Amino acid sequence: MGLVNPDTKEKVHPGMESTVMARSSDSSQNGEAPLRAAGVELTMDEEYGAAPDGGLRAWLVAAGGASVFFCCLGFANSFGTFAQYYATHQLPDKNPDDIAWIGSLNSYLQMAMGLFGGPAFDRWGAKVVRIAAILYIIMMMVLSLCKEYWHFMLVQAVIMGTLQGFMQIPAFAAVSHYFDKKRAAALGIVVAGSSVGGVVIPIAVARMLNGSTLGYGWTVRIIGFMIMPILLFACVVLVPRLPPRATSLWLGSALRDLRFMLVVAAFFFASIGMFTPLFYLPTYAVTRGVEATMAGYLLAILNAASTFGRIIPGVLADKYGRINALATGCLATGVIIFCFSAAKTEAALIVYAIFVGFFSGSITSAGSAAISICCPDPRNMGTYMGMGLALGSLGLLIGPPIGGALVRSYGGYFEFSMFGGAVCVFGGFTALLFKLLSPEGLLGIV
């Protein structure tokens, strides 16, 4: 059942009783208890201590967050391999943009459901992640039985996307409890888990679908069995540092914060463009004469490069500015997307996958770190993360289907690449506007 913090009257998360008792003793000795009794409001650091920014417990939580992203966003990042297979097997009568809606709705919901998953984590802690993980494994097995278009929309897009949101955003919030000065680096490591998953899962899926007799059903089941122990590890180590507290699903003060809204807008426009290569690179490669299995491997190469793109810019962001990292990632990714249709050989496509993977990888980690600097109270981190990613990820919902419609309308990928690159560059300029309006100025470290 846990104890009750004698200073705050809040219920203490199981496993934190000794910490709270020690803190209560320290508070009485240093005069905090009389201050609180007199109605003086303490800061979060005074009440709960500063974030450790390291140590075994903190890095285990970061590893748990990376494990969640391996299983969730890593699986979502392999949708391009599934889309290519759906177009020729499960759903041959559907247009590319129809199939893209499955992946785009899944990608949107796994961020948008953070609007509920973040506050739920603030209120109930690790229970939210554990329940969602169990249901996610069950839905993976159900996905292996899907045959009709509406089956995939319901299971892979809606239900699995929702469950991913109830795991990923709490993972962001939990890691933010333990890191402050090194937060961008820690979140970069967490998001890098999706890149590792994006390497392993597409290779496994492409090999099993195109190079074996397993078929679709057993391919998906094997992926489900593979991620089961990884999610179990995450459920054990991913616990919050701060005790549970009731928070709102929506903080109106955040919407009145120009800094917060500019970060959300930058992430929104970048999201429209940055996921188009992930969805269409294997299909485009097949049209250029690349063998289907190798086309699936391109996603693995892209995600391998994004592993470094999420960790290295995250480390640099803590030193040179999180908004600087976001703006640089958006602008560079946009320029590279402009070149999508210029890659016409297998070698060129491999090089392209490396570059777009590295630079687009920085957008998710830098975007989440940028949202975190807008939150005045870390106890509301789950709500801020949920709101920011829910609004910003609307770009994930509309970007890939628009790209598919452009491919179908024009019969090629040039217009598709011009659209994706333009909106991504616009996202970078929106991040620069944040810098321009900040006290540090356009050339400052923000």
Automatic annotation (TrEMBL):
Protein keywords: Membrane, Transmembrane, Transmembrane helix
InterPro entries in UniProt: MFS, MFS_dom, MFS_trans_sf, Proton-linked_MCT
UniProt region (Disordered), positions on chain: 1-32
Subcellular location: Membrane
TM annotation in the entry: 58-79, 99-121, 128-145, 151-173, 185-206, 218-239, 260-280, 292-311, 323-343, 349-375, 387-407, 413-434
Membrane topology: Multi-pass membrane protein
Biased composition (Polar residues): 21-31
Major facilitator superfamily (MFS) profile domain residues: 58-446
Family recorded in the similarity comment: Belongs to the major facilitator superfamily. Monocarboxylate porter (TC 2.A.1.13) family.
Name under which the protein is recorded: Major facilitator superfamily (MFS) profile domain-containing protein
Organism this protein belongs to: Apiospora hydei
